[in-house]
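Quick illustration, no need to memorize.
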Amino acid sequence: RSLKYLPKVVTGCLWEFADGACDKTNYPYYRPVQTLSIMLTYQISSRPWSFHLVNLLYFFAASSLVYLVTRLLTKKLLLAFLTAILFIIHPINSGVVNWPSALSELTLVMCASLVLIFHIKYRETGSSRNLWLVYLLYSIAILSKEPAILLPIVLVSIDIFFFKISIKRLLYVDELKKYLFFAVPLLAYLFMKTAVVGSSLGGNLASFTFIESIHARFTLFAQYLGKLFYPHPLSIFHPFEKSSDFLSFNFFISFLVAVLFVVFLFVFIKTRKSILAFAFLWFAVFLSAVLIFLTGEPDHMLFERFVFVPSIGFSLIVAQGFSYALNHSPITKYIGVATLIFITIASWLIVFPRNSDWKNEEVMYAATLRHYPDAHEIRRNLGELYLRKGEYEKAKTEWEEIIRRDKSWKDITMAYKGLGDYYRVQGDTETALQYYLQAAETGFSPRDYVTYNDVGVI
């Protein structure tokens, strides 16, 4: 909140305020660009409108840069325009713009796009100034969000697909050392992150076996791709179940989707379809970042914001189809225009009412539970919100519903604690004590000491 803490931008982490120390946090996010943006936005106003305005401006900048990158790469104005438009109107991207905490996705797109722009300019002009700007912007991109680490792979694809530089030529010393220099900002980032957070880049699938983690990556890939084709309903929560059943129909379809994706990528590379090959590779690189750094419990696996950056590749693929239709024949032109109008209207019908769900916590939680009534964590949060607002009967109803639906839920202890809080507020300490004791018996998380404290208080 205060600029006197500006050094904390690089010496602190996002969750230090809640966990007390960065090396003890369960969420080791080291994203100085996000921290700096939040700090500076707060100087404008602490009200929500200022943070939302910043996200809107970032989205405008990101979309404009997506247009510029596509235009520079393809030299096709219509294709670039369609790619940017599809990226803007895709319903799944609205959540990133509406949720201020997702601004790291926006800054990543901006920085990554600038890296690509100056790399293209370097290849076109040979100017060392542009190359140094690539390294500088790569450093900032990494400090925005971790997947930026993989940007050199995208740059190699640009060299091969668009500048027709052979792999053999890229292995020459003069070319290879340019790519090896990306290790300097990467190592600097790793040193800074380790010094502050003390953790590696890898995910932490503590509740998953190795087999379950392999299964999860295939099924998540297919589900994320499916959300881009059919984003309804938009939600802050999407159910995901861990499994090791490789013979299930669900896994078969997921595996088939992954195989077909790889086949299409290989075909486009072999047939020199540069635009489509680049689009597929962009999607694969940034979605693989999500899958490689997979972390957490099943309830925290499938988030719409994780396909924000990959959706640029998806938009380019769809835009290429529209561009072909609009330039092929009068019939395909009319079909293409009608389809684009239909997609735009459909997107509006999804996004416009969804925007109102972001009004406040209560509205968002209620909207989520309408689609996914088994989102127990969301229901628990709603119960706690009702308790804080003094709407005790509503709170009681939510906690009882959790217990009715799933007594084996991993965090069921908090539902029993919530009922204990309800009865304590009502003055019924005997019933409150019964629920607190039940909460203590079911608790296993380190933070569940609070339930023992509640028992001790009574």
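The two ends are 38 Å apart (CA to CA).
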